[in-house]
From TrEMBL:
UniProt KW keywords: Disulfide bond, Signal, Zymogen
Organism: Perkinsus chesapeaki (Clam parasite)
Name this protein carries in UniProt: Uncharacterized protein
One Pfam family this sequence matches: Peptidase_C1
Upper taxonomic lineage: Eukaryota, Sar, Alveolata, Perkinsozoa, Perkinsea
A GO MF term: cysteine-type peptidase activity
Amino acid sequence: MRASILSIVLVAVGCTQDIDMFASYKKEHKLDFGSDDDYRFEVFKSNIEYINEVNSQGLSYKLGITPFTHLTRAEFEERMTSRFYGGYLNYLRSSGFLITNYSASQISGIPDTMNYVDKGWVTGVKNQGYCGSCWAFSTTGSLEAVHKNVTGDLVSLSEQELVSCSTPYGNQGCRGGLELQAFRYVNDHGLGSEKDYPYTASQSTCNITGVKRVIKPHTIGYRIVKAGSKKGLLQAVVEAGPVTVGLDGTGVFQLYKGGVLDSGCGTSINHGALLVGYNMNSEQPYYLVKNSWGEKWGEDGYIRIAIDDSEDGVCGILKEPSFPFHRA
């Protein structure tokens, strides 16, 4: 009898803790689920159970409460990954844009670490919202670094211009897109600043009237790194700066909170992000990747992905790396 009473008490305490956590979560993220509140609470509890289960395994990474803890896995994938991402290499064959392959034999060695955040080439973490525009954020991030390297000025560029204006190049706004197609748009039209053309997380009519060109037309080229080449990717980061990468943003990505991710994701590309550095001296070597899901996800908006010897890399990071360069 006493054991039964204790079990009831423990369940009640656990339930109260879940309710308190859920209330704090809603307050922090300014969420009001209305009549859907009970369902969202059950989803939240299920995700907390999953977090605890994974964290009990002593892995090299930790899961935790993120802005997506109220979503089922299917809902998260629908809202935050890109249905149009992928098909990248096939598209290259039909493009007349200036593209050159990046050779991994251009330099004999690489430094043990590289971090473009510390170098001042990277703007603050941004938030794409519930819009499949990751491709626009990885594009602007790489161009921001190129512009910083060429001019000395770090300027936050406009993702919204790419979302709204690059559809004639094959992109589909919040439904997804490709960095290559975004770079083709930028090469033809240039690109304005985020200040002049702010982000709305929605598809709207293109209007660049009066938007100053930070990136000038006809000044951008694009290189792809050989798929499956860890050496090529690391050397590209050293020589060129931040590199756009395709990732499998499903699985544990939804609830990633910190550490070096070395499992828990596939290699099917459905998300774009920006590789901004690496560290070979760490106990577990890693790539440093800037995401576009806000600062409350991951390690202040970043994720560390393990450097390994698999063909595609963890989460497919070696499948579709690419970067822009300045053409004088």
